[in-house]
From TrEMBL:
EC main group: lyase
Coiled coil: none
This protein's name: Phosphogluconate dehydratase
One Pfam match: ILV_EDD_C
Residue stretches making up the Dihydroxy-acid/6-phosphogluconate dehydratase C-terminal domain: 406-601
Alphabetical list of PROSITE patterns matching this protein: ILVD_EDD_1, ILVD_EDD_2
EC code(s) of this entry: 4.2.1.12
Record's catalysed reaction(s): 6-phospho-D-gluconate = 2-dehydro-3-deoxy-6-phospho-D-gluconate + H2O
Organism encoding this protein: Polaromonas jejuensis
Binding site for [4Fe-4S] cluster: C156, C223
Length: 605
């Protein structure tokens, strides 16, 4: 199938726009590739330090036999259920490497925080910039510069983008990402959402709410809704950076262990075959577009409108929200996974999973097939699913959808367009995820109620002050203001209001969770209020129009009055609070330097 003309045109525009920065990136990659092998360029003391902690046999392989040496960067901790299984991975990787005459070392660990734990707390104000800390930690780990390849162990929200950004600084290395898989299905997502909404109304107490949450999040593995963590895995499959079909295989068991070993064999295979597949070459403009298409076709996390801009930048590629929006206009929505539907990722996997989606997109011309991947068979390998055949792995075609309420072919999608819309107007530029929003809620026009924090909105809801048509404006939530926390705690009260029949929308310069749901939310508003953005002009009672059909985000105030209206200043107590306590002071430099959300909220430029 020929590539869809819009996908071709958008890719060409990205390539042309990125030509200077991509050329500079590839020049650096080539310079790194042409250096002498690490054994020749490292001093004797440097080398001795590097191998001192290795078993004698491994030391001999590295120093005397000059065997390939894999650097492992791990985000393991047992605070994150999704990362708990990673504890055993280094031992498996080292054992498999030895079987193939190679060695592996844990080059370093990176921090990994759980947004589920920190939602609605001050810790969430560190979350976005933890991505950049992880990227720096990855660079520190690989800076030992004695590795022939790398394996990246990580799953969740900021961790995968951070690992990817860091790995791209060492673009000359063959690199494979190694996930852990989702936990078994717990309480049905619709039931969990219902209990949360009841709790927001005071109809369910803490004990009942806690019982529901413990039934939902109950074992090692990734949370089973299609939020940022699971969107990460979809995008890595679409970019060809996984062992094919690895994303949603459950943790534990022989299949998962064998896939981890296969990741080791895959990265060693690139070296031994002398196939030119370093990560910086794999992640080109076509791979980035493939990831964007996969995100849109699955109704994935809005967080990636920030993260993948930063990832692309790290490979010298320049993308923006216009590109996402233009792709969304033509890419069909193929899945309904919570919060876009009721199914979880285990049910998605059983219905056909990543292999079916990628095959459909390739066959219909929505993805580039002529791309480099970590597998010699290219991106077509990612249309197949793994299984054990005895003690070995075998791949089979994903086949047709087993449940078309969850995943559909391109021929009859859930929607002919993707789940994303760019909004713009006199309130700035923003994005809205409409794939989970009821059709009759795609346009909301109502008076504004302005809040300086999510806590203030929750208090107003509890006091019964929001029982009306309302557009809730929550400002001072951008990267420069407080690190751009997710405001997922606002979903239940706003959903309650919408459920009562009121027209409700959220407008904010903050983020929503990757689990953004049925309430229309204009998020990531740029420029943010703290940087002099127009949200700082909005007053209670201003009529605001959020229109996902026409792409408008407007305050309906006379132009002359709006131009003359002064900007509010971020309250001093908020600014002071953001700078102290719970580690926030250490991130002050990142907040000061942060670019806009549309520019990836980069803090290192």
């Amino acid at each position: 199938m020929a590539l869809h003309s819009a996908v071709s045109d958008i890719t060409a525009r990205i390539a042309e726009r990125s030509r200077p920065t991509r050329s500079a990136y590839l020049a650096q990659l080539q310079a790194d590739l042409t250096r002498a092998p690490s054994m020749d360029r490292m001093g004797c003391a440097n080398l001795a330090h590097a191998v001192a902690g290795m078993p004698l046999d491994d030391r001999f392989k590295v120093v005397t036999e000059r065997a390939p040496n894999i650097g492992i960067v791990t985000a393991y901790n047992d605070m994150l259920s999704a990362h708990t299984p990673l504890q055993s991975y280094p031992a498996l990787i080292k054992d498999e490497a030895r079987k193939h005459g190679a060695t592996a070392q844990v080059a370093g660990g990176v921090p990994a925080m759980c947004d589920g734990v920190t939602q609605g707390t001050s810790g969430m104000e560190l979350s976005l910039f933890s991505r950049d800390v992880i990227a720096m930690g990855t660079a520190v780990a690989l800076s030992h510069d004695m590795f022939d390849a790398a394996l990246m162990l990580g799953v969740c929200d900021k961790i995968v983008p951070g690992l990817l950004i860091g790995a791209l600084q060492f673009g000359h290395l063959p690199t494979v990402f190694v996930p852990a898989g989702p936990m078994p299905s717990g309480m049905a997502n619709k039931e969990k959402a219902r209990v949360r909404e009841q709790a927001a109304q005071g109809l369910v107490g803490r004990e009942g709410l806690l019982e529901a949450e413990l039934k939902s999040y109950h074992s090692p593995g990734t949370c089973t809704f299609y939020g940022t963590a699971n969107s990460n895995q979809m995008l890595l499959e679409a970019m060809g950076l996984h062992v094919p079909g690895t994303a949603f295989v459950a943790p534990g068991g022989a299949l998962r262990d064998e896939l981890t070993r296969e990741a080791t064999r895959t990265v060693l295979g690139i070296i031994k075959s002398r196939r030119f597949a370093p990560i910086g070459q794999i992640v080109d403009e076509r791979a980035i577009v493939n990831a964007m298409v996969a995100l849109l076709a699955t109704g994935g996390s809005t967080n990636h409108l920030i993260h993948w801009v930063a990832v692309a930048h790290s490979a010298g590629i320049v993308i923006d929200w216009n590109d996402f929006s233009a792709l969304s206009d033509v890419v069909p929505l193929l899945t309904h996974v919570y919060p876009n539907g009721s199914a979880d990722v285990n049910q998605f996997q059983a219905a056909g999973g990543t292999g079916l989606v990628i095959r459909e997109l390739l066959d219909a011309g929505f993805m580039h097939e002529d791309v480099l991947t970590v597998r010699e068979g290219g991106i077509r390998d990612y249309t197949r699913e793994p299984a054990l055949a005895g003690a070995s792995l075998a791949w089979h075609d994903a086949g047709d959808s087993k449940d078309e309420t969850i995943v559909r072919p391109v021929a009859h999608p859930f929607s002919p367009t993707g789940g994303l819309k760019l909004l713009q107007g006199n309130l700035g530029r923003s994005v809205i995820k409409v794939s989970a929003v009821p059709d009759d809620r795609h346009v909301v026009e109502a008076p504004a109620r302005v809040f300086d924090s999510q806590e203030d909105l929750q208090l107003a809801f509890s006091a019964g002050e929001l029982e009306c048509d309302v557009v809730c404006v929550v400002r001072w939530q951008g990267p420069q203001a407080n690190g751009m926390p997710e405001l997922h705690k606002l979903t239940p009260p706003l959903a309650v209001l919408q459920g009562k029949g009121f027209k409700v929308a959220l407008v904010t310069d903050g983020r929503m969770s990757g689990a953004s749901g049925k309430v229309p939310a204009a998020i990531h508003v740029s420029p943010e209020a703290a940087a002099g953005g127009p949200l700082a002009k909005v007053r209670d009672g201003d009529l605001i129009r959020v229109d996902a059909l026409t792409g408008e985000l407007q305050v309906l105030v006379a132009q002359a009055e709006w131009a003359a209206r002064p900007l509010d200043v971020m309250p001093a107590e908020l600014r002071q609070r953001n700078g102290i306590g719970m580690g926030r002071g250490l991130f002050a430099g990142m907040r000061e330097r942060a670019l806009t959300a549309e520019e990836g909220a980069l803090s290192w430029m």
